[in-house]
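Hi F.,

I've been meaning to write this up properly since the lab meeting, where we talked about keeping a consistent format for the predictions we share between groups. The idea is simple: the sequence comes first, exactly as it goes in, then the structure tokens exactly as they come out, then a line or two of notes. No screenshots and no reformatting. I'm using this chain as the first example so we have something concrete to point to.
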Amino acid sequence: MTRGPYIALLVVLGCGGGSDGSDEAVEWSYSGDRGPSHWGELSPDFAACGQGVEQSPVDFADATPSLHPALQVDYLGTPLVLTNNGHTIEVEYREGSSLTVAGESWEVLQFHFHVSSEHTIHGNAASMELHIVHRDPSGARAVLGAFLEIGEDNDILAPVFDQLPSAGVTNEVEGVEINIGDALPLDLSAWRYDGSLTTPPCDEGVRWFVLSTPISASSSQIGAFTDFIHDNARPTQPLNDRSLG
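Output, unedited:
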């Protein structure tokens, strides 16, 4: 089932898991005078995009990914409902799936993609990046990221790449469920740091876990995505006094 276009101006929190409740939507983009270098000027609500000191993404130049404390991924399947919000393609997740780290738990809200990757390693970006967005009962967010490199077809993500909607459209794929946990690598070693949303309003206080082992997708799958969404990666931000581990 496909629901037709439904947005004109929208504040899209690609890594935020929903609207911030602002009364007035603000248009932003990844280029031009509404691109990342200008986000902080577009609205007082976006001030952190320009003034924040713990912003995401970052470059993992000299950091070593850590396996401990272990990431406990308890993801279930969810009906495949994809939305193209003009900035990314997002799959909403039904309740009941969680990420737990050292006794802290966050529930999965949605997952989405960036091309190329937002985080980098020694300045080098991967072909894509998967972000699985979580929130705890207090509203605090955590994001589990995974790099996608060109390789073999990704069978788990194939239903996503096969049903990509046009801008402003939601596709409800009847009879299909996806468990995003099945797409993750066996090795859950991750870079960990305190950061922000990578889209306006760039709110800080986000826990980031970015897996060091990439997953694969074929060039045709990545090409299918870029037919709809391309260049939706925010540039890396200063590390300042943060530690990466």
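Notes:
The two ends are 43 Å apart (CA to CA).
The domain at 2-226 is CATH 3.10.200.10 (Carbonic Anhydrase II).

If this format works for you, I'll send the rest the same way.

G.
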